[in-house]
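ok, trying the design again with the full structure, not the truncated one.
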């Protein structure tokens, strides 16, 4: 597939097509599409970094296909600008699908998501500077949409203003996590397991309402109009 056609196709996948809305992505739907079919759909415009078959996962025996969007990826990239993972279960169906973008060339648009899918059920946020010597902070947001079986993550560069940490602008990282219908997107630990995988400890995410003066409704209406707007949280809310 040529570069222009690949860009157009991938852009349609990110914005969503009328006949394939989340959790359908690129005509792949967790719990319905076979793992091999998913690999065949993606193969014309991606570069496969690794295919792992018959490994043990929570659901039994799984297959995993890691990929990068080939028209943005170069071997020199420390982190591929656009990449993702397809996981298949032991029945041969897609178990989960994730897409990650680290570039403004192929964004997952927050305002588009909100307009298409409505209010998120939960918005969790976390702040940190990852021990950066130049004190570059980050504001990490996780939005859950259990009705549509997906989670959206936005990580923005933030700054300290007076007694608050403020995150603005386009995301450093934006990610979609797509799940089959029977998946429960429930408490915070379950959400973080989906986003970060199985591990002993997770970042300290808190409900937005408890660490800011915004409600879900405020968040929704504000970010539909101003998708790069600032979100502020008092420093006293964080350890």
């Amino acid at each position: 597939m040529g570069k222009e056609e690949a860009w157009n196709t991938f852009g349609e996948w990110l914005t969503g097509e009328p006949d394939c809305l989340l959790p359908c992505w690129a005509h792949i739907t967790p719990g319905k599409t076979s793992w091999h079919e998913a690999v065949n759909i993606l193969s014309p415009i991606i570069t496969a970094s690794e295919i792992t078959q018959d490994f043990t996962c929570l659901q039994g025996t799984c297959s995993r296909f890691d990929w990068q969007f080939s028209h943005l990826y170069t071997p020199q990239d420390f982190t591929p600008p656009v990449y993702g993972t397809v996981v298949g279960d032991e029945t041969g169906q897609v178990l989960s699908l994730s897409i990650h973008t680290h570039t403004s060339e192929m964004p997952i648009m927050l305002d588009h998501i909100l307009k298409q899918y409505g209010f998120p059920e939960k918005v969790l946020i976390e702040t940190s500077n990852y021990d950066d010597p130049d004190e570059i902070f980050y504001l990490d947001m996780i939005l859950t949409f259990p009705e549509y079986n997906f989670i959206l993550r936005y990580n923005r560069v933030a700054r300290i203003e007076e007694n608050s940490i403020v995150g603005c602008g386009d995301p450093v990282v934006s990610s979609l996590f797509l799940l089959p219908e029977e998946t429960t997107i429930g408490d915070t630990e379950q959400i973080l397991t989906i986003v970060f995988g199985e591990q002993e400890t997770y970042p300290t995410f808190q409900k937005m309402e408890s660490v800011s003066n915004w409600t879900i409704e405020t968040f929704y209406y504000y970010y539909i109009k101003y998708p790069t707007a600032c979100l502020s949280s008092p420093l006293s809310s964080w350890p």
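Keeping the full-length input from now on. The radius of gyration is 18 Å.
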